[in-house]
TrEMBL record:
Database matches in InterPro entries: CheY-like_superfamily (IPR011006), LytR-like (IPR046947), LytTR_DNA-bd_dom (IPR007492), Sig_transdc_resp-reg_receiver (IPR001789)
Highest classification ranks of the organism: Bacteria, Bacillati, Bacillota, Clostridia, Lachnospirales
Domain Response regulatory: 5-125
Signal peptide: none
Modified residue annotations for 4-aspartylphosphate: D60
Organism: Agathobacter ruminis
Name of the protein in its database record: Stage 0 sporulation protein A homolog
UniProt domain HTH LytTR-type: residue ranges: 134-233
Amino acid sequence: MKMYKIAICDDDAIICEELESKIIEYSFDRTVSFEIQKWNDSVLFCNQIVEYNPDILFLDIEIPNFSGVEVAKFIRNELNNENLIIFFISYKKNYAMELFQVHPHDFLVKPIETQKLNRALDKALKLLQLNSYFHYSYKKKNYVVPYSEVMYFYSQNKTVFIKKYDGETLSYLGKLKDIVLDLPLGFVCISKSYIINLRYLKSWKSDFCTMKDGMELSIAQSKRQNFKTVLLQLERG
């Protein structure tokens, strides 16, 4: 499963620790892999953001020296980064118009409630999956395909095939085991030969599943428990 990078930028170390703890709890509950880094200095964060390259940022609006809004403007305007998912955090609630200019994805009021944080993370992961791409090479050319368009991956004779929802099939030389750990939330390995995208799952029983293109795929016995677990987690999320 792909690991997502989360940055927390708040001058209050206690807030950082509490937020990190809640995110870790979320990751265990949803079986999502996160790498988390914390900054108590906004200037230092701006100097290191490119190197760390986070997917999600929890940003304190009132952080001293370089405010959260200024940090967000730096990210959007100077770095031209519109993809970073920014969640502003604050004890105050009166920043709506100022925040609108830097396109935050949500605003969380301190102390941050676990339920609201979980909803924010659910939304972030869905956005990351929709906006992310699978990269592969074929005949010395590089290609990308949106994960949202992939119905399933399968392998035959050292070739990986990519079945898209529109019926197109792509291929390249490789192995499924080399990609399974990097796939976003919603993809699950059901056998040595198949990895499916659960958004295109039509129905399933204990030992096989049917995709929306009508393809029936066997679920290996060793994969069945994990398959059920992932389904339940996504339904709860």
